[in-house]
Design brief:
The chain is of the alpha/beta class. It has helices at about 5-25, 40-55, 80-90, 110-125, 160-170, 185-190, 205-215, and strands at about 1-5, 30-35, 60-65, 70, 100, 130-135, 155-160, 180-185, 195-200, 230-235. The protein has a 7-stranded parallel sheet, with helices on one face. Strands 4-8-7 form a 3-stranded antiparallel sheet. The N and C termini lie close together (about 10 Å). The structure holds 2-amino-2-deoxy-6-O-phosphono-alpha-D-glucopyranose. 2-amino-2-deoxy-6-O-phosphono-alpha-D-glucopyranose binds next to loops. This is Glucosamine-6-phosphate deaminase.
Amino acid sequence: IVFANSVNGSICVAQEIADLIKSKQVKNELCILGLATGSSPIKVYEELVRMHNEEGLSFKNVVTFNLDEYYPMDKSSVHSYYYFMHQHLFNHIDIDPENINIPSGTISTEELHQYCIDYDLKIKEYGGLDFQLLGIGRTGHIGFNEPGSHYNSGTRSITLDHLTRVDAATSFLGIDKVPKKAITMGIGTVKKAKRIILLAWGHNKASIVKKTIEGDITPDVPASYLQEHNNVTFILNDEASQEL
Ligand code: GLP
């Protein structure tokens, strides 16, 4: 779906998430959300916070699993996705802190492998993700599943692509300060979500959006695996859709 601008697209996505949360509340069920970071989802979170403040949307029945975190990364760092999610969403809503799951950037290297297995297990125990929100990196990554990622990969540590680190360099004030690794939910984990929405805004996403939607399904463009999902929508603005 192509929107004239990212604000309209974000409001539409926030409405779908709110409707899902409310439909679960009626049935007295938990709503399991997979959440993303980066600039793309910021307005969606802003709108959800507005709905919480002005329309009484409650997040008491919501459990969240974030896609990724830099590694190593302290929770308290302004560069952490832990910080990002609290700043943009969690600090402003009534979610139970116990229901927030974000990969830990401080887990020891010895514990990392088991930690990732347990992250996937926990999602499974909740019955899987009802909804997964995604952005897309210029390498075609979703979460931090860089080119080469296997279609059935689980949560794991990954080495970041050079282009991903270049794109992050401005906010880190220099590429040398961008971590070389991250923990990411796998392609397999993401693809098991019952519903997926990918957001892409702006000219600089147009080329990867075209490859993802119209190109071959290939590990060179990990987001292209989404072509195999039966309930995925790409929400774009005019600029991001220009090469389609
Ligand atoms: C980061 C995140 C991704 C995100 C991507 C795009 O690498 N790990 O989940 O989709 O950036 O970021 P932006 O939305 O700022 O373009």
